[in-house]
Amino acid sequence: MSPEQLSTDYARIEKAIRFLDREHPAAPSLVAVAEHVGLSEAHFQRLFTRWAGISPKRFLQHRTAEVVKRLLRERRPLLDVTFEAGLSGPGRLHDLVVNAEAVTPGEYQRAGAGLVMRYGFHPTPFGDCLVAVTSRGICHLAFTQPVTRAEALARLRHEWGGAEMVADQAGTRAAAAKAFPPPGTAPMPGLALHVKGTNFQLKVWRALLEIPPGSVTTYGDLATAIGDRKASRAVGTAVGSNPVSYLIPCHRVIRSTGELGGYAWGPDRKRTMLALEATRTEADPPSSSSVLRPSPAATRPERTPATPPVERRASTAGARRARSA
Fold it and tell me: What residues pair up with 21 in beta bridges, in sequence order?
C-alpha cells in the first residue's frame, strides 16, 4: 500500500471515530458512518478491515466515547503486580519484546554529540511519522500532525542538538516497519529503543512499558506504582516527555475521571489508539509476547548543583530499590 493511501485511510478512520463519539446517542449505523466519510458501505468495510484487522461491525459494537471509561473500570492492578514481582526472573509477567537502553551520562550532557542520527518520514496506521535511529535503536518517533514535517524535524534537532543528523529514508524504513507491524500480528521481538532522560523519566517510561495493549492506568496509579504517590504532576510531565511516542505507550495513561487527558499528537489520535487496542484485545487476547518490556539501562540521575552526573545501571534490583526509597 502506498504512503499516500495509508495517510488517506487514517484520516477517514479518525473522521469516522469522531463522528461515532459525537453521534453515539443516535446509535449511527455502518451505512451512516460510511456516508459521513464519503464512502459506500462496502468500501468502508474493506478500508476499516484493512486498517484495523477487525471488522467495523465488531468495532461499532462499542460506543467509542465510552471505551476509555470502560477500560478504566475494568483495569487490573497490573503495575502493582509487576513491580512486586520484579522485572525479570521466575516472577516476570511477560516475555522481552523491547530493549530500552538509555544514553550514557556523557551523551546526555553533550546533547548527543558524537552520535550519528539517521531520520526519515514514514506512513503508519496513525498517520505520517518521523522516525530517527542511532546505531543502538530508535531514539525518536513523532507524528507529523498536528505539526508539519518541518516542525517535527526542528523538534528533533533541538532535542539532540549535538548529534550529526543524516536524512536516510531507506535506512530508517526497517525500523518504522518493525515499530508498526501489519494489523493482526504481534510486535516482533528485539525492537531496540535508545532514549534520553533523567532517572525519574526513565522510571516512569519503564512503568509505561508494563501496560499491555487494551489496558489503561491513571497518572495517580502510575505515581503510586513507581513509589511516589504524590508525584502525579511530575509523572504527567514525564509521560508527556516520552521521546518515542506509541512505542513507549503514553497514550494508555488517562485521568482518574475517565477523561483522556493530554496527548501531544491530539485527542482524536489517542482515542483511536485506545479504541483499536481495546477491540483488538477482545477479538484476540494478546499473548505474553505482545507486551512491551524494558531491559536494564544505563541512566543519568537527576541533576542538582551538589550532585555531578554519575552513571547508574537500572537493574531489577535497582528498580526495586528505587521503588522502596
Answer: none
**What is the extent of the structural domain holding 84?**
71-324
Is 129 considered catalytic here?
no
Strands 164-167 and 116-122, bridge-based pairing: parallel
Are 131 and 172 spatial neighbours (Cβ–Cβ below 8 Å)? yes
Model confidence pTM above 0.85: no
Query: Does residue 8 sit in the same domain as residue 125?
Result: no
Q: Which tens digit of pLDDT belongs to each residue from 236-290?
A: 999 999 999 899 999 999 888 878 888 888 888 988 888 888 777 765 544 433 3
Residue 58, Ramachandran bin (φ over 0: left; ψ between -120 and 50: alpha; else beta): alpha
CB atoms within 10 A of CB 320: 15
Joined grid coordinates for residue 89: 526472573
What's the structural domain count of the chain?
A: 2
276 and 249, same structural domain? yes
Q: 314 with 296: CB under 8 angstroms? A: yes
- Among residues 100, 250, 278, 292, the one annotated as catalytic is 250
